[in-house]
UniProtKB/TrEMBL annotation:
It is an enzyme of class 6 (ligase). This is 5-formyltetrahydrofolate cyclo-ligase. GO terms for molecular function: 5-formyltetrahydrofolate cyclo-ligase activity. It comes from Herbiconiux daphne. It comes from the Bacteria.
């Protein structure tokens, strides 16, 4: 059964990755404006003074304009740094200065704060390949955010950032998959009740 779920997740991730790869540039540009507006709205609504976010890759919804806004607005931004042991360290970032980290992912340049720095966050924004209408998040398969969220004693609101067509009726779920409180798309903010 578990291997069937893992297989289903791999197949769905491949489909979603290809969909993102072939999405027209003008559609992505328009979507990124919506992402920024909705992320700003969410941060203001929650009065999130410390925001844990991520530096988006070229195929993910762009978080950089939102990060620029957050920093200009005097908010503290924590960005993840992947470790070999499967945990995430965090660093305060400026949204611009970055280096290539583990797996070729963008990472902030700055003093490392360690895994427990995430406990200071008022809002956590995480990447996803898809989220279903019950709040089940499917990441990209390395489990970093699932481990991070699963280890937190008191977790602030967690929102995944995905395109509108990546909010699905159902995604395959395994026991370790951490749910999210909501999702931000280019056109809306969706909240889930748990």
């Amino acid at each position: 059964m578990a291997s069937d779920v893992s297989h289903d997740k791999r197949a769905l991730r491949a489909e979603l990755r290809e969909r993102r790869r072939t999405r027209p540039a003008h559609v992505v540009d328009s979507a990124n404006l919506g992402f920024t507006a909705n992320l700003v709205e969410l941060a203001r609504e929650l009065d999130a003074r410390t925001i844990a976010c991520y530096l988006s890759t070229s195929f993910e919804p762009d978080t950089r304009e939102f990060l620029n806004w957050a920093l200009a607005d005097g908010r503290r931004v924590l960005l993840p740094i992947a470790r070999q042991d499967g945990l995430l360290d965090w660093a305060e970032g400026d949204g611009e200065t970055e280096t290539e980290g583990l797996y070729g992912l963008p990472e902030p340049v700055g003093g490392i704060l360690g895994p427990i720095a995430i406990n200071d966050a008022d809002l956590i924004l995480i990447p996803a390949s898809a989220v279903d209408t019950r709040g089940t998040r499917m990441g990209w398969g390395r489990g970093y955010f699932d481990r991070t969220l699963g280890s937190m004693e008191k977790c602030p609101p967690v929102f995944a950032v995905v395109f509108d067509d990546e909010v699905l009726d159902e995604v395959p779920r395994e026991i370790h998959d951490a749910p999210v409180d909501g999702v931000v798309t280019p056109t809306k903010i969706i909240r889930f009740t748990r």
